[in-house]
Design goal:
4-stranded antiparallel sheet; two-stranded antiparallel ribbon; about 20% helix; about 25% strand
C-alpha cells in the first residue's frame, strides 16, 4: 500500500489548496491540470457528478443548467478535481449548444489525460418545455476500449425513465 503523494508528484498541481483561486468566467481549457495515476496497471472508472453546470445559449444568451456526468478509465494521467471544477465554471459565460459543450469537454479531457476510455453526459434542465441530454464517448483506437465505446453508445440510455435528475 502506498503512502500518499510526494511533493515531486504534485509539482504540476497549482490549484488544489490554493487560497488565492481566481475564477475565470470565459471558457479556458488551460485551467485543467493532471497528475500521475498511481494505479496504471488496473482498469477502473473515475466518475464525476457535476450538478451545477451552467453555460449560455448561443442564440438567446439565456443560462442553461445541467448535471454533467464525466466518467473515464485512466491510463497514466488523471484530472485534478479542483481544476475540473474551475474549468467547468469557465463555461458560465460561454455560449454554445448543449451538444457542443459536452463534446468540447470530452476533447479537452482527452487532450489532457489520453485516457483509455471517456464519456460525458449532459442532463440539461428543460427550457421551453424540452430537455436536451447529449452523450458522447470515446475509446482509445486499437484497444478494447474502442469496442467498449461503440457498445456503450449503441446501448446508451435505453431506459431514460430510470435516470432522474429533474
Amino acid at each position: 500500500m502506498s503512502a500518499g503523494r510526494t511533493n515531486e508528484e504534485l509539482k504540476d498541481i497549482t490549484l488544489l489548496g490554493n487560497q488565492g483561486t481566481r475564477y475565470i468566467f470565459d471558457y479556458d481549457p488551460k485551467l485543467l491540470e493532471a497528475f500521475d495515476n498511481k494505479h496504471p496497471d488496473r482498469a477502473y472508472f473515475v466518475k464525476f457528478n457535476c450538478p451545477e453546470f451552467t453555460s449560455l445559449c448561443p442564440m438567446t444568451g439565456q443560462p442553461d443548467f445541467a448535471t454533467l456526468y464525466i466518467s473515464y478509465v485512466p491510463d497514466r494521467k488523471m484530472v485534478e478535481s479542483k481544476s475540473l471544477k474551475l474549468y467547468l465554471f469557465s463555461f458560465r459565460n460561454h455560449g454554445d449548444f448543449h451538444e457542443d459543450c459536452v463534446n468540447i469537454m470530452m476533447n479537452d479531457l482527452i487532450d489532457l489525460m489520453n485516457p483509455w476510455y471517456i464519456e460525458v453526459w449532459g442532463k440539461f434542465t428543460p427550457r421551453g418545455g424540452i430537455s436536451i441530454d447529449p452523450y458522447c464517448n470515446w475509446g482509445r483506437p486499437g484497444t478494447k476500449y474502442e469496442a467498449m465505446a461503440e457498445h456503450r453508445l449503441i446501448n446508451h440510455d435505453m431506459y431514460p425513465e430510470k435516470v432522474d435528475n429533474r
